[in-house]
UniProtKB/TrEMBL annotation:
GO molecular-function term, one example from the UniProt record: ceramide 1-phosphate transfer activity
UniProt cross-references to InterPro entries, sorted A to Z: GLTP_sf, Glycolipid_transfer_prot_dom
GO annotations of cellular component type: cytosol; membrane
Domain named Glycolipid transfer protein: residues: 102-241
Origin species: Psophocarpus tetragonolobus
Protein name (record): Glycolipid transfer protein domain-containing protein
Amino acid sequence: MMVGPMQSRKLETRQWPRESPLESQILIPTPLAFRSQSLLFLLQLTLPCFFLTDGSDLLFICLIPIPVPVGAVQSPKMEGTVFTPALQELEHVKSEQGEILSKSFLDACKHILPVIDKFGAAMALVKSDIGGNITRLETVYSSNPSRFNYLYSLVQVEIETKTAKSSSSCTNGLLWLTRAMDFLVALFQNLIEHEDWPLSQACTDSYNKTLKKWHGWLASSSFTVVMKLAPDRKKFMEVVGGKGNINADIEKFCTTFSPLLEENHKFLARFGLDDMKAS
């Protein structure tokens, strides 16, 4: 695999004005894949971008700056930390019989989205993926809350109808939601265990340990690039910390949420549904 601008195909560093997503703008990565490099002459490159190619496919990632109103950035510190709502939801994630409840699990995942927001462009793809899978599962749950009260009932009905392996199934949605949360848990653990690591290194290491083996070349290349856009670690920790103990909350979230993810994997593996790769 080769990385670089189309002209030389050598790794080069391109500089452009960029401010932290925590300050005045957000850079949204927009990946586009082309089968033929001859289409590139149609693109008027007036925005920051990357090209990645493996010799046949070309990945074009454009970083679109979106201004953020000044007043929206300077908000008062929150009570607790940005993890507090998720931790509160996890207190009710299981029934008295010990089964994972659909609504509470999905709500806990949803409460992590504000954490992802603080990463800016580095997590735009992750947030989109997580949000889409939550919506997919919520839509089916909402169609019959009593029938789909338990998380795995969303999968069991698809196993019975032999639709579990469909790319649009709830099974597929739960699998990729679980994998994305694996990545985030690994990232949060890196923040606790490696205080000297910049955020980009913590992100890349977590991605390599979790999601990378399930992704094809285009997805993997896209993630590798956008991970470099992670904000300054010190600013990030200040923003997510609020008035609470951020390290304690991160550790509590990881130790509480990890067993749920492992339970998801074990359930899916029982039916041969835990090893599906990206199509």
